[in-house]
Automatic annotation (TrEMBL), chain A:
This is RNA polymerase sigma-70 factor (ECF subfamily). GO terms for biological process: DNA-templated transcription initiation. Residues 126-176 form the RNA polymerase sigma factor 70 region 4 type domain. It comes from Chitinophaga niastensis. Keywords: Sigma factor, Transcription, Transcription regulation. The keyword Transport does not apply. It holds the Pfam family Sigma70_r2. CDD domains: Sigma70_r4. The keyword Transcription applies.
From TrEMBL, chain B:
This is Uncharacterized protein. The keyword Transmembrane applies. The chain crosses the membrane at residues 49-68. Keywords: Membrane, Transmembrane, Transmembrane helix. It comes from the Bacteria. It comes from Chitinophaga niastensis.
Length: 188, 185
């Protein structure tokens, strides 16, 4: 069963796939890849923002999965473990591109500030385009929180920033997306 | 509590996903896995490559000598005169072997890790070779001896190639061949 990033937890793989992977069975590793690659690719694509980097990052991450599969404990969540490796590789890809997740002034951003959603239509395509156009730092925080369901605390730890900065960047990113979607409505 | 924007994302969550990666990702991954598998063998061999090389040489020699003891005959004749095709093969293989030996000998002795006896064993004209040549002179028409001689040359070349490959692996800059990841799991 292939997993979308949204239903990763429901992804089922045969019970012995991980054990077979640990023994170096390439066919078992292919099964693991088939089960998780779609979901992981979507994470890579959202994080890196382009197909080429997403594919390279996915490949590197799965090599790391293969190399470290023996470290995966029997009762651990396979999906969460793979996802964390993938996210780490995405962050490394971004760091190589000199994306910094620096601290920002801690100003309180009020949700719904400035943009009244009742005045415009939100579509998936419009939101996708808006997220695509965000500055990389904002997009990273927004993706990790909104799509990958990490907490602000976890995001702060991953990016080496404070929890309040992670929260503030998320609020700003969200606000920015709303503004871009609204502008797209006006243009139409 | 999720606001309208977050609710919208949650409701349409699956619509934000695209189909999986192109098949070339798995293809590249599979290639890398195969190379990494070979790398493991090379690393294992690198630890004992000298032993492996000597054992291989000894095995080749032992097999050839065993064969020769079972096929002795009397007539002594010149290889070149009686087996012109073998003479041609000899020229071809000897030149290839000597080229490879030159490359191996270019490494400093301390990096090579071979003592003089082992170096001697790698030379073309070692004891096995001389015994084979003697037998070929005695039995120029014997196809099995000719095949054994060609096989001897090929094994010698394979062995030298393996040693060169190991030497290359050992002395190449690590950054040129190995990817390093910034994050360790």
């Amino acid at each position: 069963m292939k997993a979308s990033a949204n239903n990763l937890n429901q992804t089922q793989i045969a019970e012995n796939v991980v054990d077979r992977c640990k023994k170096g069975d390439v066919r078992a590793f292919r099964e693991l890849y088939d089960a998780y690659s779609a979901a992981m690719y979507n994470i890579c694509l959202r994080m890196t923002n382009n197909v080429s980097d997403a594919e390279d990052t996915l490949q590197e991450a799965f090599m790391q999965v293969h190399k470290n599969i023996h470290k995966l404990e029997r009762d651990s969540s396979v999906s969460a473990w793979i996802k964390r490796i993938v996210v780490n590789h995405c962050l490394n890809t971004l760091r190589k591109k000199k994306v910094y997740f620096e601290e920002v002034d801690e100003v309180e951003v009020v949700a719904e500030e400035g943009v009244d959603e009742a005045q415009f239509t939100m579509t998936v395509a419009a939101v996708k385009t808006a997220i695509h156009g965000l500055p990389q730092g904002y997009r990273t925080v927004l993706n990790l929180y909104l799509f990958e369901a990490y907490s602000h605390r976890e995001i702060a730890d991953m990016l080496g920033i404070t929890e309040s900065t992670a929260k503030t960047q998320y609020m700003r990113a969200k606000e920015k997306v709303r503004q871009i979607v609204k502008q797209q409505n006006v243009i139409r | 509590m999720p606001d309208n924007f977050e609710s919208f994302i949650q409701q349409h969550r699956d619509d934000f996903d695209v189909p999986g990666p192109s098949p070339r990702v798995w293809d590249a991954l599979e290639r890398e896995l195969q190379e990494s598998g070979k790398g493991k063998v090379v690393r294992l061999m690198a630890k004992n490559w000298f032993k492996a090389a000597v054992i291989a040489v000894l095995l080749v020699n032992a097999a050839a000598l065993f064969y020769l003891t079972k096929n002795k005959e009397q007539h002594q004749q010149e290889v070149a005169a009686l087996s012109p095709d073998m003479q041609e093969a000899k020229g071809y293989y000897t030149s290839r072997i000597n080229e490879k030996l030159e490359l191996i000998n270019a490494y400093p002795a301390e990096e090579l890790g071979l003592d003089s006896a082992a170096r001697k064993e790698l030379e073309v004209r070692n004891d096995t070779y001389k015994a084979l040549e003697r037998e070929l002179k005695n039995n120029p028409g014997n196809e099995r001896i000719r095949a054994a001689m060609v096989r001897y040359y090929q094994l010698k070349i394979d062995l030298l190639d393996k040693i060169l490959e190991e030497l290359h692996e050992k002395h190449v800059t690590p950054g040129q061949t190995k990817k390093r990841y910034e994050a360790e799991i």
